[in-house]
Amino acid sequence: MSPRWEPNPDIRTGRHVAYHLHAHLVFVTRYRRGIFDDAMLKRCEEIMREVCGKFETELREFNGEADHVHLLVHYPPKVALSKLINSLKGVSSRYLRAEYTGRINRNGLGSVFWSRSYFAGSCGGAPLTVIKQYIEGQKQPI
């Protein structure tokens, strides 16, 4: 009797695709101004979860400090990370500036909330060394 195959709940499927894509994103406030407190971080997470939902992505983890936030996003291959990031930063900036005007203006951010730069790293799955070894092992003698 062969062992029963169990599907991996982390691997999503579409019509013609199976995927398991994660990105670690870091956004920094303009001039690294320390403006976040716990309530503002919670609101930022809510906004970013909404944006992710509209892109059919999942915000798996969110956290931050006074001057930056970290996100772990599970996304489908049809989503361009640059477009997701643009929307995450743009929408959160609009809402946070509207809701926390006094705090943001006191810190000299004006109309720009986030730094123009960001960090995006792919993550999840096996380490690169393991994947390289696997691919190397696929060579068949000619």
UniProtKB/TrEMBL annotation:
Domain Transposase IS200-like: 18-138
Listed SUPFAM superfamilies: Transposase IS200-like
InterPro entries tied to this protein: Transposase_17, Transposase_17_sf
TM spans (from-to): none
PANTHER family linked: TRANSPOSASE FOR INSERTION SEQUENCE ELEMENT IS200 (PTHR33360)
Protein name in UniProt: IS200/IS605 family transposase
Phylogenetic lineage: Bacteria, Bacillati, Actinomycetota, Actinomycetes, Kitasatosporales
Originating gene: tnpA
